[in-house]
Design brief:
Blueprint lengths: L25 H16 L4 E3 L9 E4 L11 E19 L9 E14 L5 E7 H14 L10 H23 L1
Bound molecules: zinc ion.
Length: about 170
């Protein structure tokens, strides 16, 4: 098991548009399995490659903490083809610790992506599954949950993030 370090707000890789994987799937196979280990260790339900420092278009969706019957999915070069209906819900993010914010997302989406074996698939997702996919795809475009906040909320979040990382650094120093 290889657990990768999750980078947090302010790290440049989180704020840039990630590169397509294309045909060279071999180079991301190891990364996919490390990302699966990482999301499980963090008790998260989704993780995008930029969150572990790799600017490539790959995401993991793992709803098993909510329903153990659901197997984790690896999506390569995912695109949303259709969005239907909207709903607002609170979201958190492993890269934006201690911040929760309301985000309006489509309730249902149709997604196209490649699987680990290179085959292209299309599928429908709804509710939390659709929300996680949209959240993770935002990461591939350098967008974070605090980018949905208004000016005041965003400044407050930034202060909070600065404060918590200052405490963390102090804790490491001692
Ligand atoms: Zn996130």
């Amino acid at each position: 098991m290889a657990k990768l370090q999750i980078v947090t707000y302010g790290c440049p890789v989180l704020h840039r548009v990630a590169e397509p994987i294309g045909e060279d799937l071999g180079r991301v196979a190891g990364l996919a399995s490390d990302m699966l280990d990482t999301v499980k260790a963090a008790s998260g339900i989704g993780l995008a490659a930029p969150q572990v420092g790799y600017s490539v278009r790959m995401v993991i969706v793992d709803l098993s903490p909510i329903d153990s019957a659901i197997k984790p999915l690896v999506l390569l070069d995912p695109v949303i083809l259709e969005k239907q209906e909207e709903e607002t819900a609170l979201e958190g993010c492993l890269s934006v610790p201690d911040i929760e914010t309301e985000v309006k997302r489509a309730k249902r989406v149709v997604v196209r992506c490649k699987r680990g074996d290179g085959k292209s698939v299309e599928f429908k997702a709804e509710n939390l599954f659709a929300r996680v996919i949209q959240h993770e795809l935002d990461h591939l475009d350098g967008k974070l949950i605090i980018d949905y906040q208004n000016f005041l909320q965003k400044n407050l979040s930034r202060l909070k993030l600065k404060f918590s990382s200052a405490i963390k650094n102090e804790a490491h120093a001692t």
